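Comment thread on ticket #2218

A.B. wrote:
> Attaching the input chain for the structure job we discussed in standup.
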Amino acid sequence: MTQAMILCAGFGTRLNELTKNTPKPMLKIGDKPILEHTIINLKKSGINRIIINLHYLADQITSYFGDGRKWGVEIVYSYEDVPLGTAGAVKKVENILSESENFLVLYGDIVTNQDYRELMDFHKSKKDAIASIIVHERIKSNSIVEMDDDNKVVKFLERPSENEIKDKKQNWVNSGLYCFNKEILSIIPEGKSDFPKDVFSKLVELNALYGFPLTGYRCAIDSSERYFMVRLNYDKGLIFDTRNLSEKWH
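C.D. wrote:
> Ran it. Output below, let me know if you need it in another format.
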C-alpha cells in the first residue's frame, strides 16, 4: 500500500473573498480544482490511497471526490473539530499511515507537477532518513534549509530572525512536500503541532532529515496574486507540460 496525505483543513484567509465560500484546495486551475490536480499527479506517481484532513467547508471536498474511485484511488477523510496543524493532522491518522513503510505528506494549496517517484526513490536510498523534504532555491522565504554534500539537512530554521538570515550559507527553502518513514509517527507530539516549527529541528538533531531539490513546477497559493499567476501559467501550458522552470515561478 502506497499512501499520501493531503493537508486541506486550513481556512485560506489570505485569499480573502476567493475562499469566503470555497475551501482553498477547491479553487479551480483550468477546469479542475487544485486538489484534483494533486490527486491525479499522485495517482501517476503510484499512490493508491489518499488521506485528506478536513475542517473548513469540508462537505465541498467530500461531495466532489467521494471515495476516490473515479480517479482510481481510495480516499479516506479525517475530520478535525479544531485544526491540528500539519504534524498533528498526521498524528491523528497514524493508525492508517502506519500501514505503509513510507508515505507522502503534501500541503493542499500547492500546485506542482513534481514526479513523487523521484522523491520516494531518493528517500529510500538514504538508509538513515526518517524524512526527506523537497526544497527549492529562493533568496527570501519563511525558512532556511542548509544541506551537506550528501543532501542531509544540517540546519532547518522556520521564520528565521534577521541575523539568522544574514548568516545563512545556502538559499534552499522548504517546499511543503514531504516523504516520511513511519518512524516519524512516534516523534510527532500529541495534540496540535507543525512539521517546520515542532518536528524538523528534532530530525536534524537525529541526523535523519534530508533535502531533495525540486525537479518540477511548484507554487504555493498563499495569495490571490499567486492564484491568478498560476491560472495564467496553466492556460499557457507551463505547469503540466513543462518541467524545470525558472526559479521566478517557485
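A.B. wrote:
> Thanks. Noting for the ticket: The chain has one domain: 3-240.
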